[in-house]
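Might I ask for a little of your time on a matter of protein folding? The record follows directly beneath this note:
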Amino acid sequence: MKSLWQLQEAKNKFSEVVNHAQIDGPQEISRHGEKTAVVISFEEYKKLKKHQGSLADFFRSSPLNELDLERAKDHPRKVEL
């Protein structure tokens, strides 16, 4: 159950990398010892895309939108420069 591939090996065995992504989960690709890419199954990709929404949607659905975040305006803040 391999999950880290060197780029050249991943290129040579791309079908195997894809098969492992489908069965074992994400497959990491490294180039010159640095992780640079990940191959995931289409099902995993759909899950990731499904959970994306806009920032506005995130704030609208947040329980924090019920908090009173207004700051007191009765006196100015002291600022040290």
User: Anything to note?
Assistant: The CA atoms of residues 9 and 40 lie 17 Å apart.
